[in-house]
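pasting for ref
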Amino acid sequence: MRIVKLIVPVLLILFTIAEIGNAQASFPPDKDQLLKGEAAGQNMVAENNGYPSPQKIVSLKDQIGLTKDQLKKIKEIVTNLPISAVVKGQEIIDAEEELNKLFESGTVSEKTLRIKLERIGKMRAELRFVHLQIYVKEKQILSAKQWERLKELKASEVK
């Protein structure tokens, strides 16, 4: 009985240490998405308002009459986006980890906290810009007629 009383607290401590380690391994919570350059819903404002993804435009290239030059430009967007997003994502992870270390060490002050949070907020805004600017660029690449055709195709998909 005495051994059981000793083992239970030891197991609880080990479990707690393991959980803390797991929580820190995935900090910030969106770390995996940031490392992969995923939009993670950051592009919803564009797509909910009729801006199709570049991949969708490429898949509809024949229906909207994309030229070879337009197709090349859209494919460049698709190719370059993940690179930019991963770089920004890593910057955010680094800044979030710095913030975590300040709390972990107990040395965070209100002034430092504000500075770090403003920096992280700016980085996250820059990442969102990376994801959303592609929708603005793709509309600039397409003619007004092609853009209208995309809207028609999207409307027919919804029905």
